[in-house]
Amino acid sequence: MPLPPDLIADLHLSDLAAEPQWPSALVAGAAHYADAPLRAMPSPIDGALLGHYAPATAGLVNHAVEAAHGAYLKWRSVPAPLRGELVRCIGNKIRQRKAALAQLITLETGKIVAEAEGEVQECIDICDFALGLSRQLHGLTMASERPQHRMMEQWLPLGAVGVITAFNFPMAVWSWNAMLALVCGDAVVWKPSEKTPLCAIALQRVVEESVDELSERVPAHICQLILGEQAAGERMAAHPLLPLLSATGSTRMGRSVAQQVAARLGRSLLELGGNNAAIVTPSADLELALRAIVFAAAGTAGQRCTSLRRLIVHDSVIDTVCARLTQAFDSLPVGDPRVEGTLVGPLIDADSYWAMQQALQAAEQQGAVRLSGGGRLEDGVPAGGHYVRPALLRVRGNLPVVREETFAPILYVMPYSELLDAIDLNNGVSQGLSSAIFTDSLREAEAFIGPAGSDCGIVNLNIGTSGAEIGAAFGGEKDSGGGREAGSDAWKNYMRRVSNTINYGDSLPLAQGIRFGQG
Ligand code: NAD
């Protein structure tokens, strides 16, 4: 199934769609087609073909990085509030194309329409945030110990920034990075997941049109797009003209990127896998908690980095919670994500389905008891997709399989009797992305969000582990990578801090009172 013609028109992609294959890269405003074996692009909804493309080769990666570096040399001198104008224009175009962009996310990832629209809204939100930020890239001034001296710090543009993204947020993660990088005066080279090239092409078109509209003020081609696989990502990690590489994906990928970037003393910003837990205490509002748990565990078919994977429930309520969740999981509408009312769409591909089945098998071998779901659905769902009913299992604690992130809808429920043990369970995995506690006790809440509580980057109270807003910094600790993106002061990742000491007197006093020679 090629893309519907009205969708192609709404996304302004008619010229590219007229070609026999999708491009391998969009660099310096031109489409490039690699001489490499074609890769098919099936929709996870029903396996129908959305097109083909040839993954970008090393030569194209180099071309894109060099083009971005050249653009950066001009962009860095454009005043930041004018850089914000470009982001405003991008945000307005994304607003106008919201429905079409969301439709594309659904086709390429299988995400239900409401969540796809939420993802596009996140892009719009970060554009608004970045626009405001373009007038707030503040530094500090410091008192100097020397007379007639002043010290200050400036935040200056960094260079061309590499952005590698995962399949499950094919638009939002790019926008978190690229919109901040643009107002910070950087150019961007984006390598999206090989599974979601069309979402990237559609956004790149938005950027190109915005650059054209503002051509009098914007040096052309600040953003480059490479549609490649792991090899293209590795080439970016090694490239000396990318002082910062922001990479989102599995912990396996992050380890590789971190080592390559560190070997050339570059900076990496890593947003990696999660293994997120929520604690349900005896005082929790169970109605509220159950709604939050079902969305966090089953939403996006369990394919969010912040999806809820472990539920730690007090002994006194665990039987009730398990019974209510079993009921909820059994009745979740699973099916075609384009159909209104569907809450759980397909898994991204067959590999993902088999990884889920292997995890379920291992869990049962390790003593887990399955309460609900996990099997393939054939009836009432489009043929050719991988549809599963979300799985609910009761376990004794962090079994070996529970410690791994399985990127599918599996929720392991485990008991606790003392809050300190629950916190130990929460922290007892190698990942540290998101966590939550459901409680009406101030003491329990503070224990969880304080220094001896959850060791994650995101620690929530009475809401689930997923569904973050862009205003706060997003990211996790330990194997989740340590990076922070989006709101708060995450923009500092995309700039270099320069410390200035200014002498406005006519003598040269040295710091620390040092006397050197005649002075
Ligand atoms: P993945 O690691 O397979 O791929 C992610 C991206 O990295 C892709 O663009 C891929 O081509 C590239 N890549 C893979 N190996 C690479 C290497 N050695 N060097 C350079 N680039 C490489 O991940 P995925 O299956 O697309 O996404 C799911 C994973 O991403 C999950 O682990 C999920 O938790 C994580 N994720 C994390 C966040 C976050 O913000 N923490 C957000 C979304 C997804």
From TrEMBL:
Q: Does the keyword DNA-binding apply?
A: no
Q: Identify the keywords attached in UniProt to this record, alphabetized.
A: NAD, Oxidoreductase
Q: Where is the Aldehyde dehydrogenase domain?
A: 43-496
Recorded hits in Pfam families, A to Z, give: Aldedh (PF00171)
Listed GO molecular functions?
aldehyde dehydrogenase (NAD+) activity
Give the EC number: 1.2.1.3
InterPro entries per UniProt: Ald_DH/histidinol_DH, Ald_DH_C, Ald_DH_CS_GLU, Ald_DH_N, Aldehyde_DH_dom, ALDH7A1-like
Lineage, top-rank taxon, reads Bacteria
Main EC class of this protein? oxidoreductase
- Which sites are catalytic? E271
Subunit (UniProt) = Homotetramer.
Family note: Belongs to the aldehyde dehydrogenase family.
PANTHER family assigned: ALPHA-AMINOADIPIC SEMIALDEHYDE DEHYDROGENASE
Q: What is this protein called?
A: aldehyde dehydrogenase (NAD(+))
Native source species: Chitinimonas taiwanensis DSM 18899
